[in-house]
Specification:
Strand content of chain B: under 5%
Number of helices of chain B: 10
Distance between the termini of chain B: 33 Å
Oligomer: heterotrimer
CATH class of chain C: Alpha Beta
Chains: A mainly alpha (about 250), B mainly alpha (about 230), C alpha/beta (about 200)
Shape of chain B: globular
CATH topology of chain C: Rossmann fold
Number of domains of chain B: 1
Structural class of chain B: mainly alpha
Number of domains of chain C: 1
Largest sheet of chain B: none
CATH superfamily of chain C: P-loop containing nucleotide triphosphate hydrolases
Order of helices and strands of chain B: HHHHHHHHHH
Structural class of chain C: alpha/beta
CATH architecture of chain C: 3-Layer(aba) Sandwich
Distance between the termini of chain C: 31 Å
Order of helices and strands of chain C: EEEHEEHEHHHEHEE
Shape of chain C: globular
Number of strands of chain B: 0
Largest interface: A-B, 32 and 26 residues
Chain lengths: ~250, ~230, ~200
Amino acid sequence: MINLIKKWLISLGSPPFFFTWASKFLLWFYPISFLLLLTGLIWGIGFAPSDYKQGEVYRIIFIHVPSSILGESVYLMMAIFGSICLIWRAKLAGMFLRSAAPIGASFTLIALVSGAVWGKPTWGTWWVWDARLTSTLILFFLYAGIIGLYSSIDNKQKGDRAASLISVVGVIIIPIIKKSVDWWQTLHQSSTFTITSAPSMTPDMYLPLLVCVIGFYSILLSMLLNRLRAEILARERNTSWVQQYLNNQVRE
Amino acid sequence: MNEKNTLFNWFMLVLKRDLVLSFKKIATFMIPLVFFLIVITLFPLALGTEGSFLSTLSSGIIWVAALLSSLLAVESIFNEDYRDGTLDQFLISGEPTFILVLAKVLAHWLVTGAPLLLASLISTLFLFLPEGLLFPLLISLLMGTFLLSLLGALGGALTIGKTAILSAVIVLPLSVPILILGVAVITSALNGQDFFSYLYFLGALLAIGIPGLCLATTEAIFINYD
Amino acid sequence: MLKIENLSCQRSNDLVFNDLSFEVSKGTNTEIIGSNGSGKTSLLKCILGIIEKKQGKISWKQKPIEEARTFFLKSCFYQGHQLALKNNFTLFENLKFSHSIFNSNEEKIMSSLKEVDLFEYRERTSSDLSMGQLKRLAIAKWLLDDHELYLIDEPFASLDQEGIFLVSSIIKKLNSKGCSFLFTSHTSSNIDSIEILLDNYS
């Protein structure tokens, strides 16, 4: 059994096999992930009880928290696949980085913007230098750097490997960044704001948040797989299987 | 000639070579220094010249300027050698690339970081840094600029042939802990607290950084060669 | 000494050469001839390990090159299209800081410069030299140390008759010392060598 799984995982590393598998998987998974996302969001924003302290505004948590979790998860995934790309020279792992980086950057941006929108009514200002927002901002800059790096390198494989290296180095330095920002923030904490990360939650609020997170993760998986499919098509466009696939698509 | 002897000789060869090359053009020394001083000057121009105001900001401004000048000066580390084939020769020589990187980082630091320490003395005049903070400033900059040279080498190796600003964008977020720690040294000295603990942190970062970042930089160089 | 068996290599996903086999023995010269793009430079880079080989076997002194890589690299000398000379260095410094000698052996540098007829210019900066003179400086590097195998990419390019004669005589001299040459060129040269022709593989 384990051998079968291993075999399947290894064969997943070949672009044609992955492409056909991902296309079939996404046919049913994409709609499900949309459903999950919608369920979570509507439940949270529409039906969850209002908060004792923050009223209705806190509902933005259903977008803000999953986005920031995702922003960080994507970076971690990029580091994992980056190390696979560097150690085993797996082409697909390298292509994953190109597919994942813009998605991660976007989620980080959503987290920043939603955080700012949350901040205005609760703290009175669009931006505050609290530890989480600052680390998220730095994470965004890290993403921007990676995207800038691989887009500036013409040779695609080299670009992948350079992006992999910087992701791996980044993932090791990120805990140091977070700790130092946390600590820096306690030094400079403004006395007017007591920064609370989230209202303490009852199951009524916690469950929709959980569904949101699952929904976000599923939509992330769908987007990643889809972008990876597109990247494969672009990269391997000179191979016979891609030509055949595209011909079939045109004919339909 | 045993192995140890050869490693040291290789290190010294690369170090001497880079230093002699930098000395040939006085600009290599002067430009990062002058850039540093220009950036320092921009702050009073932008923020006003009030003494006490500037002195509260001085440690931060000096550190930001140091960050910028170290990280923008990385073009000299690998670009030229890559372009005229010397880097190829180094990689084919059969000698460890790790030592090559270490020697190059040291050479870069001696040319950009070390003069910066002197320039920071001038900037304490410009920004009215309080008395007695000179020692923490210098020692934090000493360790910090070396870390920045290490990071800069990584950025430079990843972006061989591209502009320095791309390398700076990649590496600046990673240098945030160094900035925070460096300024903390000075601020805690200002408050009369023990600033040595922050120096120990910087030292710890150096201890991981020297092997780790040099290793990452050698990998980055090899990436450019497929 | 150097044995190549069924070597193929690719550059940017295009096969550059395929199934190449030859051998270089001690004290002999092997010349790779081909037109532009036939893979001459890639062949040299592949042997050195700068480019990954797709398949085939390279052995150095009967040992696979992967095992003996450092050993091999230290016994060979490479000169590519870019001559690895610094414009800002003087000729003397260019040789002094060449990787092949660790402790600057002044006499060796002086004698190499004399042999290539550049001794008078030894304190001039390399940016002052003409292309032919730069090429001769690159050749002076060959003489700093005796390497077992010299891999030179187009040694005769940009050289006049005198320069070609100089290179040929130096190669002959080094041959007698037991050094072998593997070099590339566009057309057949007058050196005593085994010639291998590379077709444009496209």
